[in-house]
Each structure stands twice: as C-alpha cells, then as structure tokens.
UniProtKB/TrEMBL annotation, chain A:
The keyword Signal applies. Residues 1-22 form the signal peptide. The chain crosses the membrane at residues 72-88, 108-129, 135-152, 164-193, 213-234. Keywords: Cell membrane, Membrane, Signal, Transmembrane, Transmembrane helix. Belongs to the CPA3 antiporters (TC 2.A.63) subunit B family. This is Sodium:proton antiporter. It is found in: Cell membrane. PANTHER family: NA(+)/H(+) ANTIPORTER SUBUNIT B, NA(+)_H(+) ANTIPORTER SUBUNIT B. One of its GO terms (cellular component) is plasma membrane. Residues 108-227 form the Na+/H+ antiporter MnhB subunit-related protein domain.
Length: 248, 116, 88
C-alpha cells in the first residue's frame, strides 16, 4: 500500500471513529460529576487499612496482583532491551573523548545530585502517606543520576553507575515484590499478596502494613531498571561501533 | 456545557493524532514517539473519568476523612502505566536500533524482505 | 470552594486541555526525531500540569520524570546511535 493510500484509509477510519467516540462521550457521566462508586469504595478501604495515600493503597493493597503484572512487564521489557542491545561480536567499544566542562556547571551537578537522590528517598519512605512511591521515586532517581552526565561527563556517570550491580538490583527488586506476596499467607485465611502486616495508625510513618516494603521493592526494580536501560542506549549512542565503522 | 465533555474529547483527539503520526511515519523512531503520544491519551481519559468537581487529591495527608476526593482507582492504573510504558518504549526503540543495524534504514517502507 | 474558585479551576482545566491537545498534534506531525523528542518533553510537562489540575499528584510525578526526561532522552539517544551508523 502506498503512503498516500494508507493515509486516506486512515483518515476515513479516523473520521468514523472520531464521530462514534464523540457521540459516546455525550453518553458518559458528565466530567467532574459526583458519582464515583469504585472511587468511593476504594477511598473508604484505604482509610480502613490506615493508608493515607489512597492511590498507594489501590496500587499495593487493593490491587497488588495487578501491580505484580505491571512489575513483570517492566522486568520483561528491561530484559528484552538488554538482550537486544548487547554488544554483537562484530562491534567494539571506543572510549568517547574527555570533554571540558565549566566548573560552575560541574558544581551545580554535584550539589543537585544528592538533592535529587534525597528527594527520591523521601518519596519512597513516605509513599503511603503523601503523593509518591516506588514507581515515581524510581524514575526520578534514575533521571537524577544522569545529571552527572549533563554536568560532568560520561566517565563520571560510568563511575557512579555500576551497571552489573544495578542489573542484579533490578532483578532483586522484582523478585522481592513477588516474594513479599507470600507474606500474605501469614495471616489467617491469607492469600497471595495480602497486606498481612499490622496496619498501624493513619498518617504515621509506620503505617500501611507492607505498603512501604512493596514501595521499596518497586523502587529498586524501577530505579535500577531505568538506569540500566539508559546505560545501554548511551552505550549505543556513544561507545559501540561496528567493525565497518572502524575500517571506514 | 462544553466542559462536561471537553476532557473526553481531548483524550480522543490525542489518540487520533498519535495514530495519524504512526500511520504516516517515514521513520521508525518517529513512529515510537507518536505511539508515546497515543499512549498519553489513555491517561487523560482515565483521569478525566475519575475527576470530581471540588474533590481533592485522594491523599488523606492533612485532610479530614470526610473530604470528597477524586477517584484513586484510575490514578493507580495511570501511575503504574506511565512508568511501565517508558520501559516498553525503550524495548521498541531497541528493536528499531536492531533494524537499523541489520538493514541500514529506519524507513518502514524500505524494510522489505527478511534478512538474518 | 466558592463558585468563583470552581469557575477559575474549570477555566484553567480547559486551557490546559487545549494546550496539551495542540502540543500532542505538533508532536505527531514533527517528522524529525530529534525535534520530536524536544516537543515530547514539552508535552510531558504539559501533561504533568494537567494531571496536577485533575488532582492526581501521584501520576503527575511519574509523568514529570518519564515524560520530560526518560522518554525524550531514549528517543534522542536512539536517533544519535542510528545517525552514527549511517555516517560511515
């Protein structure tokens, strides 16, 4: 199919879909309405379980099995990327040249990096109380580590980013989440991924049962996973050359 | 009132322009970028459905338990998918990079035939 | 919340929604991957803003880090890696 035909076929289909979707929207409950049967029940359950952040309660307590699925997708996607981007036999590494950076830029990066990592740690530790949690803190920490690349240079980033250890951390985080699920059998009439630990008092740091533990496991999996992903793409963009490039 | 449906229509529009980008793409990297646009429409739709006028965020940090809150269920769905979606984007880009290495092009119309 | 506040919030939501839709359109029709990555970064920020207005701070945090940093960076690095292989 030529590009022109393909575009016209798409536009015709999009017009039909667009009209049907717009018509369906008028049948939906009005935006901002009062009726949220699922939301009301989930929020009530979060309060019953003493988890102040209802979103964390849904993610890890009420729908923990769903999150296990997400966690496995994440693991599979990272694993697939690592396998696809490994160095082929006809490729070799070249060291990118060292670049000079302004001292002020370097100082900015040095100051900002601990701040970012501290923010991420706070988001994990308070994930059951305030907005935040393992998923958010993981991506924030992973993108924060790459400040070192922007502010200093690639060699500094490589030093603060032990890829082999992070590979293990990523897998261990995913495994820990799955393993924590078995703690659910500890309670009477226990089930897999049941939040079996004592729930404590609402708004206290030690509350929410296993939610902080789940958050930590997810943080390890997401944070290490995203750093490893970016490491492989940086390798491809900066370091790995094919044999032909070397001769040419 | 238009505000009753505007958020839903916006989600639909973002979905369709993202698909338009995918269909008319002549560079697989651009295809993946457009797919990311399409994906973001699902977050807009989910969060729009969960919104409650006058409701606060579903976090009882310093609000009373009787405060009306917006729907936390759709937020939990969107939140995990944002992160997992990024890793899936990475997987797709790794496939694009492999295709570029084996075939020397990222134009989908020039990727014809199988090559080992 | 007074009626005036509610009107203001609705107005902000409408502006944010239209801004996001326009940015999504620009992102989809930007053909050059490097430029598209930049537009996607702005779109990511705009989505994070919209999610905050929709009272979803948890999602906004994820979206801010993923949409403005991780996804555009992945696209830029892929574009660079592909370009490097072409210039031989």
């Amino acid at each position: 199919m030529s590009r022109r035909v393909r575009t016209w076929v798409f536009l015709a289909a999009a017009a039909v879909l667009g009209v049907a979707f717009a018509a369906a929207c008028t049948g939906l409950p009005d935006f901002g309405g009062e009726r949220h049967p699922y939301g009301d029940r989930a929020a009530a359950a979060a309060l019953r379980q003493q988890i102040a952040n209802a979103v964390a309660s849904v993610t890890f307590d009420q729908r923990g099995f769903d999150t296990l699925g997400e966690e496995l997708m994440l693991f599979g996607a990272v694993l697939g990327t690592i396998v696809l981007l490994r160095r082929a036999p006809d490729e070799r590494r070249v060291r990118p040249p060292r670049v000079r950076v302004l001292p002020s830029t370097r100082a900015y990066g040095t100051v900002l990096l601990p701040v970012v990592l501290l923010t991420a740690a706070y988001l994990v530790a308070h994930g059951h109380l305030t907005p935040g949690g393992g998923f958010q803190a993981g991506v924030i920490a992973a993108s924060g580590v790459h400040l070192a690349y922007l502010a200093a240079d690639y060699r500094v980033l490589e030093r603060i980013r032990p890829t082999a250890a992070l590979d293990v951390t990523h897998a261990a985080g995913a495994a820990a989440y799955a393993a924590l699920g078995f703690a659910g059998f500890a309670a009477a009439a226990g089930t897999y991924l049941r939040n079996a630990a004592p729930h404590g008092t609402l708004r206290e740091l030690a509350s929410g049962g296993l939610v902080p533990a789940f958050n930590t496991a997810v943080f390890a999996a997401v944070g290490a996973g995203v750093v490893v992903l970016l490491a492989h793409f940086l390798d491809q963009a900066l370091e790995i050359e094919s044999a032909e490039e070397r001769s040419g | 009132m238009i505000m009753d449906v505007l958020p839903y229509l916006t989600a639909g529009w973002i979905f369709l322009v993202g698909l338009y980008g995918v269909v008319t793409s002549s560079d697989l990297i651009h295809t993946v970028g457009s797919l990311a646009v399409t994906q973001s429409s699902t977050y807009v739709l989910l969060l729009a459905i969960g919104y409650r006028e006058g409701g606060t965020a579903p976090v009882y940090g310093d609000t009373s338990a009787r405060t009306p809150v917006v729907d936390p269920v759709v937020q939990a769905m969107a939140l995990t998918d944002v992160v997992v979606g990024a890793t899936v984007t990475a997987l797709l880009l790794a496939l694009v990079l492999q295709a570029a290495k084996r075939h020397g092009t990222t134009d989908p119309d020039q990727l014809t035939g199988l090559r080992g | 919340m007074t009626a005036q506040d509610a009107d203001l919030l609705n107005y902000l939501l409408a502006v944010s929604l239209i801004f996001t839709a326009v940015l999504a359109t620009v992102a989809a029709v930007t053909r050059d991957p490097v430029r598209q990555a930049v537009v996607l970064a702005v779109l990511g920020g705009s989505l994070a803003m919209l999610f905050t207005l929709l009272q979803a701070p948890d999602v906004a945090l994820s979206q801010l880090a993923v949409g403005t940093a991780v996804t555009p960076l992945l696209l830029l690095l892929t574009a660079r890696a592909v370009k490097r292989r072409r210039q031989r």
